[in-house]
Design a protein that fits this description.
The chain has 72 residues and is of the alpha+beta class. 29% of the residues lie in helices and 8% in strands. The protein has one domain. The chain is built from two helices and two strands; from the N terminus they run ββαα. Strand 1 and strand 2 form a beta hairpin.
Amino acid sequence: MTVVKGHYDGQQVVFDEPVPKEIPPDTPVQVTFVHPRGEHVLSRIARLATTGGMPSDYSEQHEHYVKGVPEK
């Protein structure tokens, strides 16, 4: 897998760095949009769940942990 950084200008994806010369024309690509606020919430939950780092009150306070609303 080759990673080339870029951005979405509102109409198309634009590369911010050159594509390596060894990548031939018509090579299929897959674009992944990185959430501008950082880590995606599902990635964070998965990471916490696998490391045992979930708060003990997560089931009752999930809106607080996921969306940042005040605790109940």
